[in-house]
């Protein structure tokens, strides 16, 4: 066997930019650490918090795509561990697997953590087959839905029976392990053959009960603090695992959509691309995988690219979604035993790079053609330019502000002699500081309540407008073609209106956050000047750059209105026109009202809560600073030095 170390070395170079970013963050951490050693006591908490945030900083990348697109295989290739994640997993499993690379935030004694569905989630899955059942019942696909539901129910019941007494205890629970090995992963992620399970096999024993897996792997040379998320993949007309995919996207700023080269544009892929519409385009990458299965990779990839770009344009997606080509399989061959490459893949590689019998050349060819280095670089660039840079800027700004404040406190301490007591007592000062905080928060709460009400009204209006236009279109269609031709009304407009409403509310929320920062700062400034008689240049402190809300991926959820079914005709046939309209309206409302509710409670409310929390922390830290000024006025001159913590 030839030598793989050169390939592994090249493999690691792909993430170079990300490693360089971590070096920058390391330098910042060292500086902050040093600062902590000699900081005044008011600065200790903010410094601790900044360090804590650096430790926890873990940008994440979700890999999404259809079942069998090769997502798990590609993820293994990305981390250079050719068989960490099982491939060919039974499509019924719905585990999201997070691989945490070189994490500094790993729970104690844990390399693997598996979480199970809770009783509520499980019941819902069994009773209705999940959202699929709910939607299909409205959409007139009962027969198909019944079939899927029956399968889901049967599988779930056999799980319940198999696990017996253990079952109830597992619901909502989690299992953690201090070590990672393949058989462990297989037990929770891989779905084994049910008949073998009955014979006592353990592979897949918990698989259909597992909701998520977190694996902590330390791999020298790969980036520190990067989470790669593998998703089960969407795989049927009803997008069984759509919600899971949407959740994974919402949690990651960077998404890699994996398409299979030999069917790069199925309806499912178009549906996936629609999902992309709901996330920020610059953070989406398309990886056309399995090009080793094309007879003429060079020629066919050109055609696929043209077709894909056409579709992206038609969907109104920006041109800067990067499209990459490659093969996770080639990468894994290059990183493992290249001599065992399947003949067809080898022929495809020869078509691309020329035939070779030399294993080292073959290995190098396979790695070059795999596209993994390009994907590494594309991921790294997006993380660094996006969340990475924002995080670095926010942290630097925080520390700068802290240095400014420290300077002020120290200069006050120097100017005052022990006799110049401040006009205000510590208790009165605390009261004032609390008032500033409370008033700022109160204003924020009022404003955001109003924002929420406005958003709600706008969403309802969008819903109403959509019902109106759909009914108009339906009437026009019937006037022209009678009631028996197929007819659909694309809900794209509805999504667009809702998305616009949501984005503008988020922009306003951000401005409310900024306003609250200003209010806190102004209030504190006034206290410092009027009550403490200290004048300083109040540097404005910006609201953090990192966005506070998760992507509104619920907007991408498939609606029964997306399904090009015969459902509406049924209404028409069985009733008068007025009744049909009424029922149609009811269907649209039933389909879209949960969307409105989810946008408000699952996305907007948490965003508000998070913003509020940032303001509270800000107010607390500013108050600490003002109190520090007061203390050094109150006390003899040498206090600041005494207050410094020892190293
Ligand atoms: N020829 C070839 N097969 C692949 C490639 N990627 C994955 N496969 C195979 O396709 C099947 C499904 O792969 P898997 O990674 O489980 O797909 P997933 O469902 O998207 O996670 C497995 O048998 C893989 O070995 C590839 O790039 N080329
Ligand atoms: Mg998989």
UniProtKB/TrEMBL annotation:
Alphabetized Pfam families for the sequence: Dynamin_N
List where in the cell it is found: Membrane
Task: Give the chief site where it resides.
Answer: membrane
Q: Which GO terms describe its molecular function?
A: GTP binding; GTPase activity
Q: Which Gene3D superfamilies would you find in this protein's record? A: P-loop containing nucleotide triphosphate hydrolases
Superkingdom of origin organism: Bacteria
The record's annotation in InterPro entries points to:
Dynamin_N, Mitofusin_fam, P-loop_NTPase
| Assigned keywords, A-Z | GTP-binding, Hydrolase, Membrane, Nucleotide-binding
Q: Please report the stretch or stretches of sequence annotated as the Dynamin N-terminal domain.
A: 61-275
Task: State a GO cellular component annotated for this protein.
Answer: membrane
Protein's name in the database: GTP-binding protein Der
Instruction: State the organism named in the record.
Output: Tropicibacter naphthalenivorans
């Amino acid at each position: 066997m030839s030598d793989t170390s050169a390939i592994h070395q090249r493999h690691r170079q792909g993430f170079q930019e990300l490693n360089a970013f971590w070096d920058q963050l390391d330098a910042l951490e060292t500086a902050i650490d040093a600062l902590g050693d000699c900081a005044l006591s008011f600065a200790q908490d903010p410094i601790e918090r900044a360090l804590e945030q650096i430790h926890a900083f873990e940008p994440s990348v979700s890999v999404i795509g259809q079942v069998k697109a090769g997502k798990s295989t590609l993820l293994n290739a990305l981390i250079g561990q050719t068989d960490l994640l099982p491939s060919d997993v039974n499509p019924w499993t719905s585990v999201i697997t997070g691989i945490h690379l070189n994490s500094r935030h790993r729970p104690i004694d844990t390399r693997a953590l598996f979480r199970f569905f809770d009783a509520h989630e499980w019941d819902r899955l069994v009773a209705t087959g999940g959202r699929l059942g709910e939607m299909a019942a409205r959409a007139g696909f009962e027969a198909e839905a019944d079939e899927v539901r029956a399968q889901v129910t049967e599988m779930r019941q056999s799980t319940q029976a198999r696990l017996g007494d253990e079952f109830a205890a597992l619901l909502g629970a989690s299992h953690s392990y201090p070590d990672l090995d393949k058989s462990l992963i297989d037990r929770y992620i891989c779905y084994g053959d049910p008949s073998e399970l009955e014979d006592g096999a353990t592979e897949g024993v918990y698989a259909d009960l597992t909701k998520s897996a977190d694996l902590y792997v330390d791999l020298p040379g790969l980036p520190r603090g990067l989470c790669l998320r593998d998703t089960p993949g969407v795989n049927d007309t009803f997008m069984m695992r759509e919600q899971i995919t949407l959740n994974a996207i919402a949690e990651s700023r960077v998404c890699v959509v994996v398409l299979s080269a030999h069917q790069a544009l199925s309806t499912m892929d178009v549906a996936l691309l629609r999902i992309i519409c709901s996330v920020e385009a610059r953070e989406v990458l398309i990886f056309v995988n399995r090009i080793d299965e094309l007879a003429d990779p060079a020629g066919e990839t050109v055609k696929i690219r043209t077709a894909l770009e056409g579709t992206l344009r038609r969907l109104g997606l920006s041109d800067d979604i990067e499209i990459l080509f490659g093969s996770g399989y080639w990468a894994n061959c290059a990183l493992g035993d290249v001599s065992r490459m399947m003949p067809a893949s080898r022929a495809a590689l020869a078509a691309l790079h020329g035939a070779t019998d030399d294993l080292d050349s073959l290995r190098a060819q396979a790695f070059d053609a795999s596209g993994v280095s390009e994907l590494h670089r594309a991921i790294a660039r997006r993380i660094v330019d996006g969340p990475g840079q924002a995080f670095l800027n926010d942290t630097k700004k925080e520390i700068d502000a802290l240095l400014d404040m420290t300077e002020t406190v120290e200069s006050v301490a120097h100017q005052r002699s022990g006799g110049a007591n401040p006009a205000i007592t510590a208790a009165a000062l605390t009261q004032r500081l609390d008032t500033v905080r409370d008033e700022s928060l109160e204003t924020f709460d009022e404003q955001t309540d109003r924002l929420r009400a406005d958003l709600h009204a706008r969403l309802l209006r969008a819903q109403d407008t959509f019902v109106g236009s759909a009914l108009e279109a339906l009437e026009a269609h019937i006037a022209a073609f009678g009631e028996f031709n197929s007819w659909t009304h694309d809900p794209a407009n509805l999504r667009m209106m809702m998305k616009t409403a949501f984005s503008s509310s988020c922009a306003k929320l951000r401005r409310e956050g900024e306003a609250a920062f200003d209010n806190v700062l102004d209030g504190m400034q006034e206290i410092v000047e009027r009550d403490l008689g200290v004048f300083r240049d109040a540097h404005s402190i910006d609201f953090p750059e990192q966005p506070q809300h998760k992507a509104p991926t619920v907007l991408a959820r498939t609606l029964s209105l997306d399904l090009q079914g015969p459902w509406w005709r049924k209404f028409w046939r069985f009733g008068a026109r007025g009744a049909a309209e009424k029922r149609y309206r009811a269907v649209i409302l039933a389909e879209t009202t949960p969307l409105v509710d989810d946008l408000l409670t699952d996305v907007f409310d948490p965003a508000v809560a998070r913003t509020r929390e940032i303001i509270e922390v800000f107010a607390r830290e500013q108050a600490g600073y003002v109190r520090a000024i007061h203390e050094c006025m109150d006390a003899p001159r040498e206090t600041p030095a005494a207050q410094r913590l020892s190293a």
